[in-house]
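Posting for a labmate who doesn't have an account.
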Amino acid sequence: MTERATETIANKAPLLPMGSVLIGLASFSAMDAVMKSLSLSLGPYNAILWRYAAGLIMIGILFFLQKPRWPEPEIMKIHILRSVMIVFMAYLFFWGLTKVPLAEGVALSFIAPLIALYLAAIFLKETVPPQAIWASLFGLTGVGVMVFEKLSGDYPVDVLWGIGAILISAVLYGANLVIQRYQALRAGPIEVSFYQNLIVFLAYVSVAPWFATVPPTESWLPIWLAAVLAIISILFVMWGYGRAEAKILVNLEYSAFIWAAILGWIFFQEPITLSTVIGTMLIVAGCVLATRQGQRPVHVETTSI
């Protein structure tokens, strides 16, 4: 079936792509919660290193059962580019999550699609419409509301560093989004997941002699669980985005905040503050505004991590 025919069917009956993306987002939110716990106990570097090691084993089995061919040079460049971004993006995000509540960290990452609009203008020479300017103001105001609470309250300086790390991660995430739809249409979910796990693992293992430690026995179950959840997430999300346009799916991405809030409250006793809710609403409003009036939206969630 041709790419155009696939998208026509998906646009007429997008329930399967929508359901696939929702399952992927729920899995990814659960993975974030497991990774936060691992990052607190092992440190972000070791949590990411061993999760990608486990993930590489599992997705590698699926990948080689397909008897794959070596990707074309153009596609391989995309795999490498996105994976290198993820190396830094993942570390900053999970380090930040050790300093701020899970729901707040996920909410801050929602500024990525707004950043992607401007990156697309710079690198793809796309026009930034007027509503994108207002969208950015909404998003920045939302971030400001959450940061102001930390500045005005009695919070450790580490919290502000955590917010800064997540915002830098969101900038990298925005760059990642510019090419993700392109990748989803040219490579299958298993191929994308395999090369992402492989390249990120190789990058982290290259500094293992200086930073790696063997996790204690009790950490291995969460490590494998995080790897399973991450693979489920990327397979379901990439499958959905390969079969329906982003404008149909993009607003589903904000369900990640709901899952993050629930999981943060259950497992980390993290309360949901009024400023976090208001800030999230402003950021989401900005992202929704940026998709109006024919502007092609970009993918929000970081199933790339």
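Reply:
Got it, the structure tokens are right above this. The radius of gyration is 19 Å.
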